[in-house]
Design brief:
Elements (H helix, E strand, L loop, with lengths): L1 H4 L2 H4 L4 H4 L11 E4 L11 H4 L4 H17 L3 E4 L25 H19 L13 E5 L7 E8 L2 E8 L5 E8 L4 E7 L16 E2 L10 E7 L3 E7 L1
Parallel strand pairs: 1-2
Antiparallel strand pairs: 3-4, 4-5, 5-10, 6-9, 7-8, 7-10
Helix pairs in contact: 5-6
Length: 234
């Protein structure tokens, strides 16, 4: 949250905020909580912690949730965050249910629904949460583009995750992959259904015989602004 609170232009100087946790992630069992402690006592709601105009704040929040669901560790999200409540939580007041009908808020809710379904259906997102075999960095040092890429392994299945923490579209962004073949998008937080700008890979992408990120093959994608994409080999 400290990283996400920063203006994107400054994020490249704090890239280690995103990567440091993986240095010790597999020596303990992790829950990744966005609990009520994060959204009370003038700390602001998750949405209003995000920088930028309205579109950027919602895009940052969609990116944050995609990052949360694809990292190792069990998830926790506090009430109101599932539809991006604007004000911080107050035990004396009802949740702002009327915001559910706002397109941006509804997009957050729909994204979380899809993330939950993907999480439950893809063993790579939960099978080896507490073992190093379940996670593999592809690119963790691209601070200049404020981008991260990694693999989640689940036995016979694997997902490729790439995240763009900058407000700029990265054209022809190359991601290393371990196998040749066709890679299909499973989720794109920039999809128009979620309120995004509808950039990014729409159909399958064929791996090229170009080694990259320490992998024998690679794919070239459009990486949308303030967004994460999840791909799987067909």
């Amino acid at each position: 949250l400290t990283y996400f609170h920063r203006q994107p232009v400054h994020r490249k100087f704090h890239h280690d905020n995103l990567t440091f946790g993986l240095l010790y992630a597999f020596s303990e069992n992790f829950v990744l909580p966005f609990s009520h402690d994060e959204v009370v006592h003038l700390k602001r709601s998750l949405l209003n912690k995000m920088p930028g105009d309205e579109w950027q704040r919602f895009a940052n929040l969609r990116l944050l949730y995609t990052y949360l669901f694809t990292m190792p560790g069990k998830k926790l999200l506090f009430m109101g965050s599932e539809f991006a409540q604007g004000r911080e939580w107050d035990h004396d007041r009802a949740l702002e249910w009327h915001l559910y009908d706002h397109p941006h808020n509804h997009g957050i809710h729909r994204l979380l629904s899809d993330l939950n379904h993907l999480y439950c259906s893809e063993p790579s997102l939960y099978s080896f949460d507490f073992e190093s075999t379940g996670f593999q960095w592809l690119g963790c040092e691209d601070a200049q583009h404020s981008a991260l890429s990694y693999l989640r392994h689940g036995g016979e299945s694997a997902l490729v995750v790439s995240l763009n923490f900058s407000p700029h579209t990265h054209e022809n962004f190359r991601i290393g992959v371990p196998e040749t073949g066709s890679y299909t998008p499973q989720l794109n937080s920039d999809a128009s259904d979620y309120g995004g700008s509808h950039q990014g890979p729409a159909t399958h992408i064929e791996a090229e015989n170009t080694p990259w990120m320490g992998q024998p093959y690679s794919i070239s994608v459009v990486l949308p602004p303030l967004a994460g994409i999840i791909l799987q080999k067909k």
